[in-house]
Automatic annotation (TrEMBL):
The keyword Oxidoreductase applies. NCBIfam families: crtI_fam, hydcarot_desat_CrtD. Coiled coil: none annotated. Residues 11-485 form the Amine oxidase domain. Transmembrane segments: none annotated. This is Phytoene desaturase. Keywords: Carotenoid biosynthesis, Oxidoreductase.
Length: 488
Protein backbone atom coordinates (compact mmCIF):
# COMPACT_ATOMS: atom_id res chain seq x y z
CA UNK A 1 0.00 0.00 0.00
CA UNK A 2 1.33 3.50 -0.85
CA UNK A 3 2.20 5.64 2.15
CA UNK A 4 1.01 9.19 2.67
CA UNK A 5 2.17 11.54 5.40
CA UNK A 6 0.15 14.59 6.40
CA UNK A 7 1.96 17.35 8.30
CA UNK A 8 -0.49 19.16 10.58
CA UNK A 9 -3.89 18.09 11.89
CA UNK A 10 -5.82 21.28 11.13
CA UNK A 11 -9.20 20.87 9.43
CA UNK A 12 -7.60 20.65 5.96
CA UNK A 13 -5.01 18.14 7.21
CA UNK A 14 -7.75 15.95 8.69
CA UNK A 15 -9.83 16.16 5.51
CA UNK A 16 -6.80 15.38 3.32
CA UNK A 17 -5.86 12.41 5.49
CA UNK A 18 -9.41 11.05 5.17
CA UNK A 19 -9.54 11.57 1.43
CA UNK A 20 -6.19 9.85 0.90
CA UNK A 21 -7.20 6.98 3.15
CA UNK A 22 -10.31 6.65 1.00
CA UNK A 23 -8.04 6.54 -2.06
CA UNK A 24 -6.26 3.54 -0.55
CA UNK A 25 -3.25 5.13 1.13
CA UNK A 26 -1.79 4.13 4.45
CA UNK A 27 -1.89 7.50 6.22
CA UNK A 28 0.15 8.95 9.10
CA UNK A 29 -0.62 12.43 10.46
CA UNK A 30 2.11 14.33 12.34
CA UNK A 31 0.93 17.18 14.57
CA UNK A 32 3.14 19.46 16.65
CA UNK A 33 0.46 20.06 19.28
CA UNK A 34 -0.90 17.52 21.76
CA UNK A 35 -4.34 17.83 20.13
CA UNK A 36 -5.85 17.71 16.63
CA UNK A 37 -7.90 20.46 14.98
CA UNK A 38 -5.37 23.33 14.82
CA UNK A 39 -7.40 26.53 14.99
CA UNK A 40 -10.59 24.53 15.68
CA UNK A 41 -9.94 23.86 19.33
CA UNK A 42 -11.75 24.47 22.64
CA UNK A 43 -10.97 25.36 26.24
CA UNK A 44 -12.73 24.92 29.56
CA UNK A 45 -12.53 27.76 32.11
CA UNK A 46 -14.24 26.67 35.32
CA UNK A 47 -17.81 25.76 34.37
CA UNK A 48 -17.61 27.49 30.98
CA UNK A 49 -16.68 25.85 27.66
CA UNK A 50 -15.40 27.98 24.79
CA UNK A 51 -14.62 27.29 21.16
CA UNK A 52 -11.18 28.81 20.78
CA UNK A 53 -11.20 29.84 17.11
CA UNK A 54 -13.91 29.73 14.41
CA UNK A 55 -17.51 30.38 15.39
CA UNK A 56 -19.33 30.72 12.07
CA UNK A 57 -20.10 27.45 10.28
CA UNK A 58 -21.25 27.44 6.66
CA UNK A 59 -21.48 24.70 3.99
CA UNK A 60 -21.73 21.84 6.52
CA UNK A 61 -22.22 19.41 3.64
CA UNK A 62 -18.45 19.59 3.07
CA UNK A 63 -17.95 17.95 6.47
CA UNK A 64 -20.78 15.47 5.86
CA UNK A 65 -19.11 14.40 2.60
CA UNK A 66 -16.13 13.07 4.54
CA UNK A 67 -18.31 10.69 6.56
CA UNK A 68 -20.13 9.61 3.42
CA UNK A 69 -16.82 8.67 1.77
CA UNK A 70 -16.67 5.79 4.26
CA UNK A 71 -20.37 4.93 3.99
CA UNK A 72 -21.01 6.41 7.41
CA UNK A 73 -24.20 8.33 8.10
CA UNK A 74 -22.88 11.76 9.19
CA UNK A 75 -25.84 12.14 11.58
CA UNK A 76 -24.54 9.21 13.63
CA UNK A 77 -21.33 11.15 14.27
CA UNK A 78 -21.80 14.87 13.82
CA UNK A 79 -24.93 16.99 14.22
CA UNK A 80 -25.75 20.63 13.75
CA UNK A 81 -28.65 23.04 13.75
CA UNK A 82 -29.45 25.65 11.13
CA UNK A 83 -29.80 29.15 12.53
CA UNK A 84 -33.01 31.13 11.99
CA UNK A 85 -31.40 34.36 13.12
CA UNK A 86 -28.06 34.92 11.47
CA UNK A 87 -26.70 37.76 13.56
CA UNK A 88 -27.79 40.66 15.77
CA UNK A 89 -26.25 44.03 14.89
CA UNK A 90 -25.96 47.02 17.23
CA UNK A 91 -25.03 50.63 16.54
CA UNK A 92 -23.92 53.37 18.92
CA UNK A 93 -27.13 55.37 18.34
CA UNK A 94 -29.02 52.67 20.25
CA UNK A 95 -30.54 50.96 17.19
CA UNK A 96 -30.24 47.25 16.50
CA UNK A 97 -31.15 44.90 13.67
CA UNK A 98 -31.65 41.16 13.74
CA UNK A 99 -30.81 39.50 10.39
CA UNK A 100 -33.23 36.70 9.61
CA UNK A 101 -32.13 33.66 7.62
CA UNK A 102 -35.44 33.73 5.79
CA UNK A 103 -34.71 35.66 2.61
CA UNK A 104 -38.14 37.26 2.19
CA UNK A 105 -38.31 38.24 5.82
CA UNK A 106 -34.76 39.62 5.71
CA UNK A 107 -35.53 41.75 2.63
CA UNK A 108 -38.72 43.11 4.19
CA UNK A 109 -37.21 43.87 7.60
CA UNK A 110 -33.97 45.26 6.18
CA UNK A 111 -35.94 47.49 3.82
CA UNK A 112 -37.89 48.92 6.77
CA UNK A 113 -34.94 49.27 9.12
CA UNK A 114 -32.39 50.67 6.65
CA UNK A 115 -34.96 52.62 4.60
CA UNK A 116 -33.82 51.11 1.29
CA UNK A 117 -36.17 49.65 -1.30
CA UNK A 118 -36.92 45.94 -1.13
CA UNK A 119 -35.98 45.77 -4.80
CA UNK A 120 -32.46 47.12 -4.31
CA UNK A 121 -31.79 44.66 -1.46
CA UNK A 122 -33.23 41.75 -3.45
CA UNK A 123 -31.16 42.71 -6.50
CA UNK A 124 -28.00 42.91 -4.39
CA UNK A 125 -28.60 39.39 -3.06
CA UNK A 126 -29.27 38.12 -6.59
CA UNK A 127 -25.99 39.60 -7.80
CA UNK A 128 -24.27 38.05 -4.80
CA UNK A 129 -25.64 34.65 -5.79
CA UNK A 130 -24.66 35.13 -9.44
CA UNK A 131 -21.09 36.04 -8.48
CA UNK A 132 -20.85 33.01 -6.19
CA UNK A 133 -22.21 30.64 -8.80
CA UNK A 134 -19.96 31.98 -11.54
CA UNK A 135 -16.76 31.94 -9.53
CA UNK A 136 -17.14 29.02 -7.14
CA UNK A 137 -16.54 26.25 -9.73
CA UNK A 138 -13.54 28.13 -11.16
CA UNK A 139 -11.87 29.92 -8.25
CA UNK A 140 -12.79 27.68 -5.32
CA UNK A 141 -13.29 24.12 -6.47
CA UNK A 142 -10.30 23.69 -8.80
CA UNK A 143 -6.62 24.48 -8.89
CA UNK A 144 -6.07 27.94 -10.33
CA UNK A 145 -2.54 26.94 -11.18
CA UNK A 146 -3.08 24.14 -13.70
CA UNK A 147 -3.68 25.14 -17.28
CA UNK A 148 -6.36 22.50 -17.79
CA UNK A 149 -8.53 24.31 -15.20
CA UNK A 150 -8.93 27.05 -17.77
CA UNK A 151 -10.12 25.05 -20.74
CA UNK A 152 -13.71 24.21 -19.88
CA UNK A 153 -17.16 25.74 -20.15
CA UNK A 154 -17.40 26.94 -16.54
CA UNK A 155 -14.18 28.94 -16.81
CA UNK A 156 -15.13 30.41 -20.16
CA UNK A 157 -18.49 31.39 -18.65
CA UNK A 158 -16.84 33.05 -15.66
CA UNK A 159 -14.26 34.84 -17.78
CA UNK A 160 -16.83 36.10 -20.25
CA UNK A 161 -18.78 37.55 -17.31
CA UNK A 162 -15.73 39.05 -15.66
CA UNK A 163 -17.21 42.57 -15.91
CA UNK A 164 -20.04 41.41 -13.59
CA UNK A 165 -17.58 40.37 -10.90
CA UNK A 166 -16.68 43.94 -9.85
CA UNK A 167 -12.96 43.21 -9.73
CA UNK A 168 -12.00 46.81 -10.43
CA UNK A 169 -13.90 48.36 -7.54
CA UNK A 170 -13.59 47.84 -3.82
CA UNK A 171 -16.36 46.12 -1.89
CA UNK A 172 -17.12 49.47 -0.24
CA UNK A 173 -17.46 51.13 -3.67
CA UNK A 174 -19.82 48.39 -4.88
CA UNK A 175 -21.89 48.74 -1.73
CA UNK A 176 -22.03 52.53 -2.06
CA UNK A 177 -23.27 52.12 -5.63
CA UNK A 178 -25.95 49.70 -4.44
CA UNK A 179 -27.25 51.55 -1.38
CA UNK A 180 -27.39 54.99 0.18
CA UNK A 181 -27.94 54.03 3.82
CA UNK A 182 -24.54 54.04 5.59
CA UNK A 183 -25.63 51.40 8.10
CA UNK A 184 -26.63 48.98 5.34
CA UNK A 185 -23.34 49.69 3.55
CA UNK A 186 -21.48 48.89 6.78
CA UNK A 187 -23.59 45.74 7.18
CA UNK A 188 -22.52 44.46 3.73
CA UNK A 189 -18.95 45.79 4.10
CA UNK A 190 -18.42 43.53 7.11
CA UNK A 191 -18.35 40.46 4.87
CA UNK A 192 -14.76 41.42 3.91
CA UNK A 193 -13.71 40.30 7.37
CA UNK A 194 -14.81 36.74 6.58
CA UNK A 195 -11.48 36.26 4.87
CA UNK A 196 -9.52 38.74 6.97
CA UNK A 197 -9.59 41.62 4.50
CA UNK A 198 -10.59 45.28 4.45
CA UNK A 199 -13.82 46.30 2.67
CA UNK A 200 -12.01 49.42 1.50
CA UNK A 201 -9.36 47.36 -0.33
CA UNK A 202 -10.85 43.97 -1.16
CA UNK A 203 -12.43 43.82 -4.64
CA UNK A 204 -16.19 43.96 -5.15
CA UNK A 205 -16.27 40.27 -6.06
CA UNK A 206 -16.37 39.68 -2.29
CA UNK A 207 -19.98 40.80 -2.36
CA UNK A 208 -20.59 37.11 -3.16
CA UNK A 209 -19.90 36.20 0.50
CA UNK A 210 -23.36 37.24 1.76
CA UNK A 211 -24.80 34.55 -0.52
CA UNK A 212 -22.98 31.92 1.52
CA UNK A 213 -24.30 33.17 4.83
CA UNK A 214 -27.67 34.66 3.94
CA UNK A 215 -28.87 32.19 1.34
CA UNK A 216 -27.01 28.93 1.92
CA UNK A 217 -27.38 29.28 5.68
CA UNK A 218 -25.39 29.37 8.89
CA UNK A 219 -25.12 26.42 11.24
CA UNK A 220 -23.94 25.48 14.70
CA UNK A 221 -22.66 22.02 15.58
CA UNK A 222 -24.75 20.71 18.49
CA UNK A 223 -21.59 20.09 20.54
CA UNK A 224 -19.88 23.30 19.45
CA UNK A 225 -17.42 24.11 16.66
CA UNK A 226 -14.82 21.88 18.29
CA UNK A 227 -16.91 18.88 17.31
CA UNK A 228 -16.05 19.53 13.65
CA UNK A 229 -12.40 18.61 14.25
CA UNK A 230 -13.15 16.07 16.97
CA UNK A 231 -15.73 14.07 15.02
CA UNK A 232 -13.40 13.98 12.00
CA UNK A 233 -10.53 12.85 14.22
CA UNK A 234 -12.68 10.01 15.55
CA UNK A 235 -13.63 9.03 11.99
CA UNK A 236 -9.95 9.11 10.97
CA UNK A 237 -9.01 6.84 13.87
CA UNK A 238 -11.84 4.49 13.02
CA UNK A 239 -10.68 4.11 9.42
CA UNK A 240 -7.10 3.39 10.45
CA UNK A 241 -5.32 6.72 10.10
CA UNK A 242 -2.44 6.94 12.59
CA UNK A 243 -1.92 10.15 14.58
CA UNK A 244 1.46 11.21 15.95
CA UNK A 245 0.72 14.02 18.41
CA UNK A 246 3.29 16.27 20.03
CA UNK A 247 5.38 15.36 16.99
CA UNK A 248 6.54 18.43 15.06
CA UNK A 249 8.01 17.65 11.66
CA UNK A 250 11.50 19.17 11.54
CA UNK A 251 12.69 18.30 8.08
CA UNK A 252 11.69 16.96 4.69
CA UNK A 253 14.26 14.52 3.26
CA UNK A 254 14.36 15.07 -0.50
CA UNK A 255 16.09 13.40 -3.43
CA UNK A 256 15.73 14.00 -7.18
CA UNK A 257 12.80 16.37 -6.89
CA UNK A 258 10.78 14.09 -4.64
CA UNK A 259 10.23 14.00 -0.90
CA UNK A 260 11.46 10.62 0.28
CA UNK A 261 10.72 10.95 3.98
CA UNK A 262 10.04 13.30 6.87
CA UNK A 263 11.91 13.65 10.13
CA UNK A 264 10.01 14.08 13.39
CA UNK A 265 11.44 13.78 16.92
CA UNK A 266 14.69 12.47 15.47
CA UNK A 267 13.02 9.57 13.63
CA UNK A 268 12.71 9.17 9.88
CA UNK A 269 9.39 8.13 8.29
CA UNK A 270 9.28 7.20 4.59
CA UNK A 271 6.47 8.41 2.36
CA UNK A 272 5.29 8.15 -1.24
CA UNK A 273 3.17 11.28 -0.94
CA UNK A 274 3.44 14.18 1.52
CA UNK A 275 0.72 16.70 2.27
CA UNK A 276 1.68 19.86 4.13
CA UNK A 277 -1.11 21.47 6.18
CA UNK A 278 1.26 23.89 7.94
CA UNK A 279 0.99 27.56 7.12
CA UNK A 280 2.91 27.67 3.85
CA UNK A 281 5.00 30.68 4.93
CA UNK A 282 6.15 28.85 8.07
CA UNK A 283 6.79 25.71 6.01
CA UNK A 284 9.19 27.55 3.65
CA UNK A 285 11.04 28.96 6.64
CA UNK A 286 11.37 25.66 8.47
CA UNK A 287 10.91 22.27 6.84
CA UNK A 288 11.36 23.64 3.30
CA UNK A 289 14.15 26.08 4.00
CA UNK A 290 16.40 24.52 1.34
CA UNK A 291 13.70 24.58 -1.38
CA UNK A 292 13.42 27.46 -3.88
CA UNK A 293 11.09 30.03 -2.33
CA UNK A 294 8.07 31.43 -4.23
CA UNK A 295 9.12 34.96 -3.23
CA UNK A 296 6.17 36.81 -4.78
CA UNK A 297 3.66 34.53 -3.05
CA UNK A 298 5.38 34.80 0.30
CA UNK A 299 5.45 38.61 0.08
CA UNK A 300 1.65 38.82 -0.07
CA UNK A 301 -0.01 40.78 2.72
CA UNK A 302 -1.31 38.55 5.51
CA UNK A 303 -4.96 38.49 6.52
CA UNK A 304 -5.98 40.23 9.73
CA UNK A 305 -5.60 38.53 13.08
CA UNK A 306 -7.82 38.71 16.17
CA UNK A 307 -7.71 39.48 19.85
CA UNK A 308 -10.19 37.47 21.87
CA UNK A 309 -11.45 37.63 25.44
CA UNK A 310 -13.10 34.42 26.62
CA UNK A 311 -15.41 35.61 29.38
CA UNK A 312 -17.66 33.60 31.65
CA UNK A 313 -20.55 36.04 32.27
CA UNK A 314 -22.81 35.40 35.27
CA UNK A 315 -25.87 36.94 33.66
CA UNK A 316 -28.05 36.29 30.60
CA UNK A 317 -28.49 39.00 27.98
CA UNK A 318 -31.78 38.66 26.12
CA UNK A 319 -30.96 41.07 23.23
CA UNK A 320 -27.97 38.88 22.29
CA UNK A 321 -28.07 35.77 20.11
CA UNK A 322 -25.37 33.30 18.98
CA UNK A 323 -23.64 35.89 16.74
CA UNK A 324 -23.63 39.57 17.67
CA UNK A 325 -21.89 42.61 16.23
CA UNK A 326 -21.40 45.96 17.94
CA UNK A 327 -20.33 48.20 15.07
CA UNK A 328 -17.59 50.83 15.13
CA UNK A 329 -18.74 54.35 14.34
CA UNK A 330 -15.86 54.75 11.88
CA UNK A 331 -15.27 51.54 9.91
CA UNK A 332 -12.79 53.21 7.56
CA UNK A 333 -10.54 54.29 10.43
CA UNK A 334 -10.83 50.87 12.08
CA UNK A 335 -9.48 49.10 8.96
CA UNK A 336 -6.81 51.74 8.41
CA UNK A 337 -5.57 50.93 11.91
CA UNK A 338 -5.67 47.15 11.36
CA UNK A 339 -3.90 47.07 7.98
CA UNK A 340 -1.78 50.24 7.89
CA UNK A 341 -1.10 51.54 11.39
CA UNK A 342 -0.97 48.05 12.89
CA UNK A 343 -2.50 48.91 16.22
CA UNK A 344 -6.04 49.10 17.56
CA UNK A 345 -8.50 51.85 16.73
CA UNK A 346 -10.17 53.48 19.74
CA UNK A 347 -13.67 52.41 18.63
CA UNK A 348 -13.39 48.78 17.44
CA UNK A 349 -16.19 46.64 16.04
CA UNK A 350 -16.86 44.02 18.72
CA UNK A 351 -18.06 40.51 17.87
CA UNK A 352 -19.65 38.46 20.67
CA UNK A 353 -20.31 34.76 20.12
CA UNK A 354 -22.36 32.92 22.75
CA UNK A 355 -22.71 29.19 22.13
CA UNK A 356 -24.54 28.72 25.45
CA UNK A 357 -27.56 30.36 23.79
CA UNK A 358 -28.01 26.91 22.17
CA UNK A 359 -25.65 24.55 24.00
CA UNK A 360 -26.87 24.70 27.57
CA UNK A 361 -23.90 22.85 29.09
CA UNK A 362 -21.48 25.49 27.79
CA UNK A 363 -22.26 27.78 30.77
CA UNK A 364 -23.85 27.41 34.20
CA UNK A 365 -27.59 28.14 34.47
CA UNK A 366 -28.30 31.88 34.24
CA UNK A 367 -24.83 32.53 32.77
CA UNK A 368 -23.31 32.81 29.29
CA UNK A 369 -19.95 32.01 27.64
CA UNK A 370 -18.86 35.12 25.76
CA UNK A 371 -16.25 34.81 23.02
CA UNK A 372 -15.56 38.53 22.62
CA UNK A 373 -13.41 39.30 19.60
CA UNK A 374 -12.01 42.33 17.80
CA UNK A 375 -10.22 42.18 14.47
CA UNK A 376 -6.55 42.84 15.05
CA UNK A 377 -3.43 43.67 13.06
CA UNK A 378 -1.00 40.84 12.41
CA UNK A 379 1.69 40.20 14.99
CA UNK A 380 4.69 42.30 14.02
CA UNK A 381 6.34 42.73 17.41
CA UNK A 382 3.67 44.93 19.07
CA UNK A 383 3.49 45.09 22.85
CA UNK A 384 0.38 42.89 23.19
CA UNK A 385 0.19 43.34 26.95
CA UNK A 386 -0.25 47.08 26.52
CA UNK A 387 -2.53 46.64 23.49
CA UNK A 388 -4.71 44.17 25.44
CA UNK A 389 -5.10 46.55 28.40
CA UNK A 390 -5.98 49.39 26.01
CA UNK A 391 -8.51 47.49 23.93
CA UNK A 392 -10.11 45.71 26.91
CA UNK A 393 -11.19 49.05 28.33
CA UNK A 394 -12.52 50.22 24.93
CA UNK A 395 -14.46 46.97 24.45
CA UNK A 396 -15.96 47.10 27.92
CA UNK A 397 -17.04 50.72 27.47
CA UNK A 398 -18.60 49.88 24.11
CA UNK A 399 -20.51 46.90 25.52
CA UNK A 400 -21.70 49.03 28.43
CA UNK A 401 -22.93 51.78 26.10
CA UNK A 402 -24.62 49.42 23.62
CA UNK A 403 -26.18 46.98 26.09
CA UNK A 404 -26.74 49.45 28.95
CA UNK A 405 -24.87 47.33 31.47
CA UNK A 406 -21.74 47.22 33.56
CA UNK A 407 -20.21 44.12 32.07
CA UNK A 408 -17.05 44.13 34.20
CA UNK A 409 -19.22 43.25 37.23
CA UNK A 410 -20.37 40.09 35.47
CA UNK A 411 -17.05 38.63 34.28
CA UNK A 412 -16.40 35.51 36.38
CA UNK A 413 -13.54 33.97 34.43
CA UNK A 414 -11.28 35.34 31.71
CA UNK A 415 -8.68 34.21 29.22
CA UNK A 416 -7.09 36.30 26.46
CA UNK A 417 -5.74 35.17 23.09
CA UNK A 418 -3.56 37.63 21.16
CA UNK A 419 -2.23 37.49 17.56
CA UNK A 420 1.12 36.41 19.02
CA UNK A 421 -0.58 33.50 20.86
CA UNK A 422 -2.34 32.45 17.63
CA UNK A 423 1.01 32.38 15.84
CA UNK A 424 2.59 30.36 18.64
CA UNK A 425 -0.24 27.87 18.94
CA UNK A 426 -0.87 27.12 15.24
CA UNK A 427 2.37 28.29 13.55
CA UNK A 428 0.25 30.66 11.48
CA UNK A 429 2.72 33.33 10.38
CA UNK A 430 2.03 36.62 12.23
CA UNK A 431 -1.09 35.09 13.75
CA UNK A 432 -3.16 35.70 10.62
CA UNK A 433 -6.52 33.91 10.69
CA UNK A 434 -6.90 33.22 6.97
CA UNK A 435 -3.38 33.05 5.46
CA UNK A 436 -2.99 35.92 3.00
CA UNK A 437 -5.47 38.78 2.75
CA UNK A 438 -7.69 39.35 -0.29
CA UNK A 439 -6.89 43.04 -0.33
CA UNK A 440 -6.15 43.16 -4.05
CA UNK A 441 -7.77 41.78 -7.17
CA UNK A 442 -4.90 39.41 -7.92
CA UNK A 443 -4.90 37.77 -4.46
CA UNK A 444 -6.61 34.61 -5.67
CA UNK A 445 -3.89 34.08 -8.30
CA UNK A 446 -1.03 34.89 -5.93
CA UNK A 447 -2.02 32.40 -3.26
CA UNK A 448 0.29 29.38 -3.12
CA UNK A 449 -0.86 26.47 -5.35
CA UNK A 450 -1.96 23.16 -3.86
CA UNK A 451 1.13 21.43 -5.21
CA UNK A 452 4.89 22.02 -5.03
CA UNK A 453 6.75 23.21 -8.09
CA UNK A 454 9.96 21.72 -6.69
CA UNK A 455 8.89 18.27 -5.49
CA UNK A 456 6.55 16.11 -7.53
CA UNK A 457 4.95 14.30 -4.56
CA UNK A 458 4.50 17.28 -2.20
CA UNK A 459 1.06 18.93 -1.88
CA UNK A 460 -0.32 21.81 0.19
CA UNK A 461 -3.70 22.22 1.85
CA UNK A 462 -5.20 24.65 4.36
CA UNK A 463 -6.04 28.28 4.84
CA UNK A 464 -2.72 29.71 3.63
CA UNK A 465 -2.93 28.15 0.14
CA UNK A 466 -5.48 28.03 -2.68
CA UNK A 467 -8.45 28.58 -2.44
CA UNK A 468 -7.97 30.40 0.90
CA UNK A 469 -8.90 30.53 4.58
CA UNK A 470 -12.03 29.63 6.50
CA UNK A 471 -13.38 26.15 7.17
CA UNK A 472 -15.24 25.62 3.84
CA UNK A 473 -12.27 26.69 1.71
CA UNK A 474 -9.86 24.58 3.76
CA UNK A 475 -12.11 21.58 3.13
CA UNK A 476 -12.14 22.44 -0.57
CA UNK A 477 -8.31 22.55 -0.63
CA UNK A 478 -8.29 18.95 0.63
CA UNK A 479 -10.64 17.97 -2.16
CA UNK A 480 -8.44 19.66 -4.76
CA UNK A 481 -5.26 17.91 -3.62
CA UNK A 482 -6.97 14.52 -3.39
CA UNK A 483 -7.91 14.98 -7.04
CA UNK A 484 -4.36 16.05 -8.01
CA UNK A 485 -2.92 13.02 -6.24
CA UNK A 486 -5.41 10.66 -7.88
CA UNK A 487 -4.49 12.05 -11.27
CA UNK A 488 -0.70 12.28 -10.72
P1 LIG B 1 -4.67 25.13 11.04
O1 LIG B 1 -5.87 25.08 11.87
O2 LIG B 1 -3.91 26.39 10.95
O3 LIG B 1 -3.73 23.95 11.52
C1 LIG B 1 -2.42 23.75 11.06
C2 LIG B 1 -1.84 22.67 11.94
O4 LIG B 1 -0.48 22.42 11.57
C3 LIG B 1 -1.82 23.07 13.42
O5 LIG B 1 -2.46 22.09 14.18
C4 LIG B 1 -0.33 23.19 13.73
O6 LIG B 1 -0.04 22.88 15.08
C5 LIG B 1 0.25 22.16 12.77
N1 LIG B 1 1.67 22.34 12.53
C6 LIG B 1 2.33 23.51 12.29
N2 LIG B 1 3.65 23.25 12.14
C7 LIG B 1 3.83 21.91 12.25
C8 LIG B 1 4.97 21.04 12.17
N3 LIG B 1 6.20 21.49 11.92
N4 LIG B 1 4.76 19.72 12.35
C9 LIG B 1 3.50 19.21 12.59
N5 LIG B 1 2.41 19.99 12.69
C10 LIG B 1 2.56 21.33 12.51
N6 LIG B 1 -13.14 30.19 9.80
C11 LIG B 1 -14.45 30.03 9.56
O7 LIG B 1 -14.85 29.30 8.62
N7 LIG B 1 -15.39 30.65 10.35
C12 LIG B 1 -15.04 31.45 11.39
O8 LIG B 1 -15.88 31.97 12.12
C13 LIG B 1 -13.66 31.64 11.65
N8 LIG B 1 -13.24 32.41 12.69
C14 LIG B 1 -11.95 32.32 13.12
C15 LIG B 1 -11.60 32.90 14.34
C16 LIG B 1 -10.33 32.73 14.85
C17 LIG B 1 -9.96 33.35 16.17
C18 LIG B 1 -9.37 31.97 14.11
C19 LIG B 1 -7.98 31.74 14.68
C20 LIG B 1 -9.70 31.45 12.88
C21 LIG B 1 -10.99 31.61 12.36
N9 LIG B 1 -11.39 31.05 11.15
C22 LIG B 1 -12.72 30.95 10.83
C23 LIG B 1 -10.40 30.49 10.21
C24 LIG B 1 -10.31 28.97 10.32
O9 LIG B 1 -10.19 28.61 11.66
C25 LIG B 1 -9.08 28.50 9.57
O10 LIG B 1 -9.10 28.99 8.23
C26 LIG B 1 -8.95 27.01 9.52
O11 LIG B 1 -9.33 26.39 10.73
C27 LIG B 1 -7.50 26.69 9.20
O12 LIG B 1 -7.33 25.33 9.06
P2 LIG B 1 -6.01 24.73 8.44
O13 LIG B 1 -6.31 23.37 7.99
O14 LIG B 1 -5.41 25.66 7.47
O15 LIG B 1 -4.96 24.57 9.60
Amino acid sequence: MSKAIVIGAGIAGLASALRLRHQGYEVDVFEKNTYTGGKIHAIQLGDYRFDLGPSLFTLPELVDELFKLFDEDPRNHFNYIQKETICNYFWEDGTSFSASANRDRFVKEASQFFEESEESIRNYLKRSQRKYELTSPVFLEKSLHKSKSFFNLETINALSSVHKLDLNQSLDQVNHKSFSNEKLIQFFNRFATYNGSSPFKTPGIMSMIPHLEMQLGTYLPKKGMHDISQSLTRLAQKVGIRFHLNAPVDELMTENKTVKAIKAKGKIYNADTVVCNMDVYTAYNTILKNAPKPEKTLKQERSSSALIFYWGINKEFKPLDLHNILFSENYNKEFEHIFDKKYFYEDPTVYINITSKHIKNDAPRGSENWFTMVNAPTHEGQDWKAQTTYIREKIINKINRNLKTNIENHIEVEKVLTPKDIEKETASFQGSLYGTSSNNKFSAFLRHPNFSKSYSNLFFCGGSVHPGGGIPLCLMSAKIIAKHIRQS
